[in-house]
Amino acid sequence: MTLKIIINRIQRFIVDKSSSDQKIKYFRNQGMKIGKNCIFETMSFSTEPYLVEIGDEVGISNGTVLITHDAGIRCFRDELPGDDIFGKIIIGNNVFIGINCTLLPNTIIGNNCIVGAGSVLRGRYPDNSVIIGNPAEVLVSMNVQKLMYRQNLGRLRTADMTDEKKKPVVMKHFTSK
Fold it and tell me: Which 3 state secondary structure label does DSSP give 94?
């Protein structure tokens, strides 16, 4: 293993334990296009981060993996010696990607989308979609999802609270029922 590889692995390990801003800075330096006000809770971007484009206001949860290559071509090395397969991943603006999702090569997610936890995506997904499953499909429009959120009995105004202030509010809500 070369010194350059060792240094890169140490750097990735340190960045993985750092803030979302540090992760974004690291990947921008690797050639990834990343918009404004994004949050990354993952470091699992492919070996070709320069093939990933991410819009503004995108949140990517922990455990999510973006893969920009298809190593299955190795099974055909006799007929296709030395060839590799690559594909871009493009994520629009105002997108939230849930925990433990996998985005495969040649995936495009439109603007204003939610990707449900554990989904596996390959292909094009239109604007204003809620996307779930393996393989992932559009479940409902964002308008329907917003209506469901508005009617959800677990909806509380805690987004700007610290964990310390949020806990009694949440506990009271769920113990008084």
Answer: coil
Separation between Cα atoms, residue 74 and residue 111, nearest integer Å: 34
pLDDT in tens, 48-94: 999 999 999 999 999 999 999 998 988 998 999 989 999 999 999 99
Alpha carbons within 13 angstroms on the beta-carbon side of residue 147 total 5
> Where is pLDDT greater, at 103 or 24?
103
Instruction: Tell me the two tokens of residue 2.
Output: 């070369």
CA–CA separation, 66 and 91 (whole Å): 11
Taking residue 58's Cβ as centre, other Cβ atoms within 10 Å add up to 22
Architecture of domain 3-142: 3 Solenoid (2.160)
Greatest Cα pair distance in the chain: 67
Q: How many CA atoms lie within 13 A of 159 on its CB side?
A: 2
Q: Does an H or E element contain 127, and which?
A: none
Please tell me the distance from the alpha carbon of residue 68 to that of residue 79, in angstroms, as a whole number: 22
End-to-end CA distance of the chain, in Å?
Answer: 59
